Amino acid sequence: MTEIQNFKTRKFDFASFFFSGLTGFSTLLILAILAVILGNIIINGWPNLTWHFVSTIPKKDFFDPATTGVLPMIIGTTIRVFMMTIFVLPIGVITAIYLTEYAPSGSWLTRIIRAAVNNLAGVPSIVFGLFGLGFFINFIGRNMDQLMHNPGPVWGQPAVLWASLTLAVMTMPVVIVATEESLKAIPMGLREASLAIGATKLETIIRIVLPQALPGIMTGGILAVSRAAGEVAPILFTGVAYYMASLPGKLSDQFMDLGYHVFVLSTQSPDIEKTRPILYATVLVLLLLTFALNFVAVLIRARVRKKLRALG
Amino acid sequence: MPQQQHQGKLTSGWMGIHRGHKARPLEWLAEKFIFLVSLSTILMVFLIFVFVAREALPIFLGKENSALIKPVIPPADIDKLKSEELRAYLNLTEKQFQKMDRETKVDLMLVKQEAQSEIPERLLNDPDAKLNTTEWGAMLKPRQWASYNKPEYIWQPIGQIHKYNIIPLFVGSLKITIIGLLFAVPLAVGAAIYISQLARPRVREVVKPVIEMLSGIPSVVVGFFALLIMATVMQKVFGYETRLNAFVAGVALSFSVIPLVFSIAEDALTSVPRSYTQGALALGASRWQTAWQIVLPAATPGVFAAVVLGFGRAIGETMIVLMVCSASVMSWSIFDSARSITTTIAAEMAEAVAGGHHYRILFMLGAILFAVTFVSNMLGELVIHRLKHKMEGKR
Question: Does A286 sit within 8 Å of B220, measured CB to CB?
Fold first, then answer.
């Protein structure tokens, strides 16, 4: 008995205590940073978040707290993110299917594809903006204008279509990685059973594997949406407008955007003290949009990971 | 690995025609289609490089000339020039040149002549006005401009003489990135050690997703927070002069780097085989000794990769730095303002004339940035790949 107690209360090791404490402290500090940012925005933003604010189309001078609103920005952000999802989901999911189901694991081509996916994830967002300008607008857009004999630039200028396509290229790795993760979590036995009763590989993938992987694919889509909703740098040159009197109606229209509006309000305001309330409210709207989505994705992903761990 | 195990009825052979199987041309086509689509990621990386570099090509090749005073050829001499020389002089593309008739070309030459005659008198004898500032020498080396008393590095694209020295931008980017990493790496790695080695499972399951939520905060929101709140608070605490400086930008930047470094480092630490930890604990080491002397050394390459990838993220971050500081001063002091490469591109692209030298230089900066992050990504991925291999081999 005494021996066991001695073992439990072994010599107090100060270094261990100190450094463990230090790592715990850095964890707490990170949590505190998160809490301060979110707390500050929620406390200051919530009282200013009125129905009038989110449902009004502002006049030219949107720095006036009494008359301004963010309806066109919410709509603009939603449209560009929605269109991006349409472009990115099919390509991302098909690539992930190839990587998990078909790609020979050791081949050089598979490794190059994986390297490309990882690389795409690390390209700075401003470079995507330059790419959108150089490729979509200056190359594809201008050539479309020439082919259609448009008198002025219609496609060869910033537009919501080009912004969505640029964002789709940027979020491709997010969708691929999430889909791959969920495909790997599906038990091999399901595939084998399906193959054993005579289904071909493609039938197995479409009928058995994909329905099972749906939550993971959704996570990928949601993560891509929440990443794209907050990004401003890629759309700076490819479609965002400082002010527009009307909502975008065509694919070749420009649009107003929540994230860009936050940037404009906080750097271009003539009187920052006066615009502070609407600035906080705008930030809160943006955060609610991205965070609600992110949170759902984190929940689904945690579930998928648990499943994966239970199997592995 | 799933792909090696099941080789049931593969639709193979040309168009799915295979001995002993029913022909399935549609499936064969569909599988080829899946393969082709999966190549799109490679295509995209390639296209990004090609189209960013394409716009910057004249700068890389030294074909752009930004000198204010250029030699003038009088329109009367149009027939003395070869067509190739004339095209270069008028700065036209092959297509444009062929479409134009002679009259338009003469007009263009007249315009050039007039533009040259409008240069103010005081600049005519200024050696700066004759300098092509887009040459590599002018972009990299300091120069003593008129009315300066010593050679200096200056980025000043607006004005009659465009000063395109890119060194201040690189210094600005490095300065902010290093400050960001100095804050982010210890915090993120410390938290990763705590979460993966010391924390109770229940704490881990709650805290890990919460820290990862930090990456969900859009960078404009971090920038807004740094600009409105942090800058003021930090000025009061540290008492420096410039309210918006590289220090504030670096600390704000670390908020967007922390989640990335944290999740990669945490992955690396968790992937260390459990037998390592169990062995050390059985020999009587404390939890901290195990984490510090056994697990961390085994996962060092992964932590290194986390730092490299964090560097790539930090140097490419745009909006935070754009909102917090933007004056392009050449200074190594962290309490001065700084202008990074990304900020320069974001802030100046709108006012640059499409196809002009300013526009092309901004694209060149983008291409350099792409190259830098490309290398750091490759390096990080390589290290992670090796580490995974090693860990799986020893398990």
Answer: yes
